[in-house]
Amino acid sequence: MYHGAVERVKQREAPRLTVRMPGMIEKLYLAKPRGFCAGVVMAIDAVKEAAEEAKQAGEGDIAVYHDIVHNRTVVDRLEDEHSVTFVERLDDLEQARRTAARQGRNLGSTVVFSAHGVSPVVRQRAAELGLTTIDATCPLVTKVHNEAKRYAQQGYHILLVGDSTQHQEVIGTRGEAPEQTTVVSVVGNRKHDPELADPLTVEVPDPDKVVVLTQTTLSVDDTMKTVELLRQRFPNLVTPPSDDLCFATKNRQDAVRQMAPNVDAFLVVTSTASSNGMRLLELAQDLTGNAHRIECADDIDLDWFAGATSVGVTSAASTPDDLVQQVVAYFQQLNPALQVVEEGEWENIVFRKPKKVPPPEALPVT
Ligand code: SF4
Fold first, then answer.
1. Residue 186 has what pLDDT?
2. Is the CB of 177 under 6 A from ligand 1?
């Protein structure tokens, strides 16, 4: 595999060929911050604690509506180590209970809403099904929901900038005011979602009563360009007092920007479903022209590093750091003298643990 890469480099750069063998990566730059953000930590801890509490109380296993965060390893570990069941529709729970029973398990009636948030129709359905709920929505997503509700009540049309109409966060936020919301693509969107409106052509019922909100995990640069474009089209466009992009998204993109001049190639440890992770990949690719997504160290292909001496590594806000440490170990094995450089600051933010809420009929009568 590596031989092929050498041949390609030879063809491109024959006059001053200095091909380095794989394993000659001398410096590994680790982005800081990277990996878990406060919202992800809160959501995962909420699931683990709820699963253990329910077990101890004899209430059976718990379910989570949608992947708690967009990372395959996190979901697999919660299934394997805490017997958590993940469903994409609350109405799938009945079938999941029968399946669990056949396996000798008891799936109870507690469901956790994922960090991406849910639309009011999901909350309503949970109440109708008599489910106990734990809302692990990130507070920064809740902030956008509250803005959507407030502006919709004031009669505004909402232009919700998102990277896909199918992303859980977008579905949830749009669900607060579906009749008054149009999901608009970011400028330079690399997904092909035909449901997304184009910011250049989107129309609204009243151009003087329009507000722009955004998904929390978009590219900072592309979002600024999109909002500016919308402002040119709708001069009275309202924007919330603080923008909707979250600190974790911004900080991880900043870290990539700072590292980029030092590295020949980038590895981004992320699942494809992670919006913030895929935005890191796009940014790293734009800055270095040599960025690759990996789920874990097993995906690394040494062909990517022909001629490279330094590699930058970052990870999505939902990627466990042990997956990054496996990448470090991989390169250390190839070069025991590897220098690992880690500059920057960790975030120091903690979100409160969400409460367990019994179904409405079980609430005490006041
Ligand atoms: S990435 Fe941002 S919005 Fe998503 S959970 Fe983390 S802090 Fe919250």
1. 94
2. no
What pLDDT is attached to residue 364? Answer: 53
Record the pTM: 0.91
Quote the DSSP letter at residue 233.
H
117 lines ligand 1 (CB under 6 A): no
Position 362 scores a pLDDT of 55
Q: Which residues of the chain have pLDDT under 50?
A: 1-20, 23, 365-366
Residue 155's Cβ-side half-sphere holds a number of Cα atoms within 13 Å equal to: 5
In angstroms, what is the span from residue 184 Cα to ligand 1's centroid? Answer: 20
DSSP letters for 237-290? -B--SS-SS-HHHHHHHHHHHHHGGG-SEEEEE--TT-HHHHHHHHHHHHHHS-
Listed residue (141, 93, 94) closest to 114, CA to CA = 141
Residues annotated as part of the active site: 169
The secondary structure of 321-336 as a DSSP string is HHHHHHHHHHHHHH-T
- Locate the ligand 1 atom nearest the alpha carbon of residue 276 and give its number: 1
Residue 310 is which amino acid?
A: S
pLDDT at 236: 98
Residue 69 Cβ < 6 Å to ligand 1 = no
What spacing in Å lies between the alpha carbon of 246 and ligand 1's midpoint?
6
| C-alpha 135 to ligand 1 mean position (Å) | 14
Phi, psi of 233 (to 5 degrees): -75, -35
Q: Is 276 in the pocket of ligand 1 (CB under 6 A)?
A: yes
Q: Is the peptide bond before 33 cis (omega within 30 degrees of 0)?
A: yes
